[in-house]
């Protein structure tokens, strides 16, 4: 009930944002919601299954390029192109996950990075489909079915992004509280025991990677018409690292935390970059602080679950230094 009330309150506040915020702020908020959806998709792997991916940008880039090509070359309505791009990302992920889940731990992470860089290299060379280093430019926000152009404007497209985020959040919440989600938590805590209980853990891992890629592809598919372009930077390993930071700073294994982490990353990076070109250095120090003293992330601090652990870590380090 508390979650439902909180979600309803947040939805109401976000729904009123276009009436209260200037255009530039609305642009930043829309991008933050897209990144929040992307970070939440990675949380299914990192927070609930302990599958650390260094190549989740592949999902985002696949969704962006697929949606961009559909909108540019087929004239397909936006409401059809976005889910098709997400579905394509999920289908591609089945093959990727089948290979990556042959390994575990660091080896799994390295394989995800390798696949992401493979997609990056293909995008960099496949001029006819991806535009190579120039990318795809001029991606339109095609009218919806029956020629309805409700999503062409900033406010209309913002509401589409908000609906996708809230719908995905509800879907992920139902997923992690289902028997499927219980198995994912079993894999996270003790995969050997879960396997001994008769569960084919590899199938579950392939499934969660496919779902995470589909949601990440949905975020990328929304970004392409939002920005009007898609380029190879969306597939680069650096972007995978940034979204992983969003998950950790926001609070892994919470779904809501990564959304907050994405907004925090957007806000702080924009503020720091307006002050100094070395903004990444200062944000790195902030990230180190979260890892050391607030491992449960922003959501853990807000909900109170991370404060006690943070104090205990500080106390333990003090006792160790004085012993």
Task: Explain what the structure shows.
With 323 residues, the protein is mainly α. The chain has one domain (2-322): Orthogonal Bundle (ABC transporter involved in vitamin B12 uptake, BtuC). The chain has 14 helices and two strands. It has a two-stranded antiparallel ribbon. The model is unreliable at 307-323 (pLDDT under 50).
Write the layout of secondary structure elements.
Layout: H1 2-20, H2 23-46, H3 57-73, H4 78-100, H5 106-125, H6 127-130, E1 136-137, H7 154-176, H8 179-196, H9 201-227, E2 229-230, H10 237-250, H11 256-275, H12 279-293, H13 297-303, H14 307-322
Antiparallel strand pairs: 1-2
Indicate the low-confidence ranges by residue numbers.
307-323
CATH topology: ABC transporter involved in vitamin B12 uptake, BtuC
Instruction: Name the shape in a single word.
Output: globular
The separation of the N and C termini measures: 47 Å
Mean pLDDT: 89
Supply the CATH architecture: Orthogonal Bundle
CATH class: Mainly Alpha
- The order of strands across the largest sheet is 1-2
The gyration radius over C-alpha positions equals 20 Å
Number of H- or I-type helical stretches? 14
Sheet with the most strands, sense and barrel status: 2 strands, antiparallel
Number of distinct beta strands: 2
Order of helices and strands: HHHHHHEHHHEHHHHH
Number of domains: 1
Q: Which features characterize this protein?
A:
single chain; ABC transporter involved in vitamin B12 uptake, BtuC
Provide a brief overview of the structure.
With 323 residues, this protein is an all-alpha fold. 76% of the residues lie in helices and 1% in strands.
């Amino acid at each position: 009930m508390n979650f439902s009330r909180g979600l309803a309150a947040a939805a109401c506040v976000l729904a009123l944002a276009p009436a209260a915020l200037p255009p530039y702020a609305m642009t930043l908020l829309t991008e933050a919601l897209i990144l929040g959806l992307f970070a939440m998709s990675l949380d299914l792997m990192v927070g609930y299954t302990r599958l650390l991916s260094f190549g989740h940008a592949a999902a985002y880039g696949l969704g962006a390029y697929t949606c961009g090509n559909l909108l540019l070359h087929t004239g397909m309505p936006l409401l059809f192109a976005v889910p098709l791009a997400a579905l394509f990302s999920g289908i591609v992920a089945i093959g990727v996950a089948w290979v990556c889940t042959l390994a575990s731990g660091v080896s799994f992470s390295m394989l995800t990075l390798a696949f992401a860089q493979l997609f990056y290299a293909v995008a960099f060379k496949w001029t006819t489909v991806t535009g190579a280093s120039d990318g795809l430019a001029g991606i339109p926000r095609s009218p919806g079915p029956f020629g309805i152009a409700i999503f062409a404007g900033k406010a209309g497209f913002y509401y589409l992004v908000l609906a996708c985020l809230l719908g995905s959040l509800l879907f992920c919440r139902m997923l992690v509280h289902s028997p499927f989600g219980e198995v994912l938590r079993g894999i996270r805590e003790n995969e050997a025991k879960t396997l001994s209980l008769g569960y084919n853990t590899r199938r579950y891992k392939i499934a969660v990677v496919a779902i995470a890629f589909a949601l990440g592809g949905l975020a990328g598919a929304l970004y392409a018409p939002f920005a009007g372009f898609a380029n190879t930077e969306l597939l680069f390993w650096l972007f995978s690292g940034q979204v992983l930071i969003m998950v950790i700073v926001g609070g892994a294994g919470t779904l809501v935390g990564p959304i907050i982490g994405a907004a925090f990353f957007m806000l702080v990076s924009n503020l720091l970059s307006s002050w100094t070109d070395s903004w990444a250095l200062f944000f790195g120090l902030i990230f180190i602080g979260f890892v050391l003293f607030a491992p449960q992330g922003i959501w853990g601090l807000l909900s109170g679950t991370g404060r006690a652990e943070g104090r205990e870590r500080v106390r333990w380090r003090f006792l160790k230094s004085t012993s």
